[in-house]
Every structure is written in structure tokens, then in C-alpha cells.
Amino acid sequence: MTSPILSTRLDVRGITADEHLAFVRRQRSASFLQTPAWGRVKAEWRHESVGWFRGDELVGAALVLYRQLPRVKRYLAYLPEGPSIDWESEDLAAWLRPLATHLKGAGAFGVRMGPPVVTRRWDAATVKAGIADDAVHRLGDLAPTERSHGGARVVAQLRDLGWRPQAVEGGFAAGQPQYVFQVPLAGRSEDDVLAGMNQLWRRNIKKAAKEGVEVTSYDGAAIEPELKTFHDLYVHTAERDHFTPRPLSYFRTMVDALGSEETDRIRLYTARHEGTLVAATIAIRVGAHAWYSYGASSTEKREVRGSNAVQWQMIRDAIAAGADVYDLRGITDTLASDDPHLGLIQFKVGTGGEAVEYVGEWDLPLNKALYKAFDVYMRRRG
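Above: the chain sequence. Below: its structure as C-alpha cells.
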């Protein structure tokens, strides 16, 4: 939708979770981090659903997470991968200024958001060539396959409106990835997607089938009996790959919250070989956007290629559900041969998809003194 000139003033106010969910259901794509259920998952944040109204018509929506400053009743208002508004508008001020007014009234000293707007894309062949070239260290060193004029326009407008680009950072604001890897699915069959994968991926998918790897998916109430099994393997993966795992309670909350919106919003997949669990994943879908959210794999029996088998089944199910994109979530922008994240990028590149850069996260200070104190606090933490 495009609205160069807004004929009616936009107002922002709180909406119910049901109103918010009804709006999300009308969208072709919206981040699962912008569903009302996600507010229940992030229990350490206060949350609110807000809507943009043109007259009585709800034309935009967002989930806002409020994180309180230590010892002060003021908040950072965070809109992860949102809001869901008309980002093609020539007048983003008409959308963002009433949002800032509403959030300031709710006690926010600053706003952080991650517009779901793409700036550049690199196809798999380009990324693969970059990895093989010692002179290339980052995605930005490569000419993009596609450059978005709309993305450039959004960046320019945000700067003009006083928003500040942020480096992705964890902890207080739990920043979302600016670079992701996606497999386009719109208009493609299973055979088309399989043909687009590299030889190693196709060979591994065939090997898993030949070895008798069995992939099973679960949704709704059927997930709960398998969730502890998934989590045990996930903790094993965390110990092997040196990251801090989330507790089982987090996944139970996530399954319960997201599953309450739609039966097939969240699905658990397991890959077993001769009864032994070799891989397990969690997939999420909102409208036509499907995500690979969490994954785990066994150190044993890696030769049966359970990880490839379970990914292929998730892709097939996304195609069957009419998804436009299969999103493997975050990657780093580095292509250097000595970077420890390179193996993850190489695994994802094998799917034949594309590296995608979003505009990233942006901050708007509402109380300059408190925002400056927050900024200093975050820098010291970093």
C-alpha cells in the first residue's frame, strides 16, 4: 500500500489483543515479534498493543515492549521488527510522530524500533564467491544483487526525523539481526527449491532419506510431550557450540502463547534415526512468512544428515502452507575465512537463498537527559 499524501490525520492509541491479532491476520507478512502473543513471551517487559487509526479505520499496529530504567519509572519503548505500518509512505512523519507522542505519554524516555524494510540483497552465488575471495571480508564489500530504493528512502526519512541508527546489541534492548538469510518461495515448487540448492545440500537430503531418517512435526497440544526431548538436545547443542541456552520454561511459554493465536503458528520438528533423536527444530509462521527459529543437533550420528532432513521438511511444509519466504534468521555480515560464524553462513548459503540486509534498529530520544544516561549505561555494559 502506498499513500503519498494522507487525506486524514493518523491517531495512535492502545488497542486490545483481539484487535491487534485481527489486524495481523489481514497482513500477508508480519513478524512474529509483532504479534500480541509475543508480549506474553517477553514477561520481563511490560507490553502494549497500539494501533494507527485513520478516522475509525485501523490501518497500522504494533506490539510495544516497555523496559524500565533502573530506579526510575521511565521506560525504553521497544518495537522489535516493527511497527506494521505503511513503510512505502512518502510521509513517515505522519505515522511516527503520533507514535512518539503516545509513547511519551506512557512514560517512555526513548523509542527503539526495527522497521521491516529491506535495503540490499545478495544471491547465493554472490555470497559464495565472496567467501572464496580473500579480499572480501564483509557483505558490504560485494555489489548487491538488488538494492532497494524504498529502503534508502526510509533511511533518509528516519535521519531527517531525528532517529538514530543503532548497532545491534543484546542485554537491555535485545537487538534483532540486521542481516538474515532467506529462501524465496513465492511461485516456486519443491523441485524448483531443491534445484536451487547446492550439490552438498541435495546430496545430504538424499543421504538422510536413504539412511532412513524420519522427520515428524507437532503442533498444538502435541508439542508438549516432545518439548523436553527437544530441550535436552538443545542444551547439548549449546554446550558443544558454546552459547547460553534458554530454559525449558521459556519454550513452554513461547509454545503456549504463540499456539494460542493459531494452531499452526508454531511447530516442533524432530528427526530420528533408528529411534535416536539426531536433530530437532522449532518453526514459526505468520501469514506468508515462515521462520526457522531454534535448532538442535546431536554430536552422534551426524553422518545421517538429520539437520538437512529436518530443514527440508520445514521448507516443504512452508511451501504447502503458501509461504512467500522461508527465513533462516540471523547471519553476521562477515565473510572472513577466520570468522567463527562463517560455518553457519556457509550452511545457510547451501539452501540457494539470499542474504538480506534490513535497515536495522533506530532510536528516537524523547527525554534527552535520560536517553543520554541510558546510552552511557549501555556503552559501559558493552
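The two ends are 39 Å apart (CA to CA).
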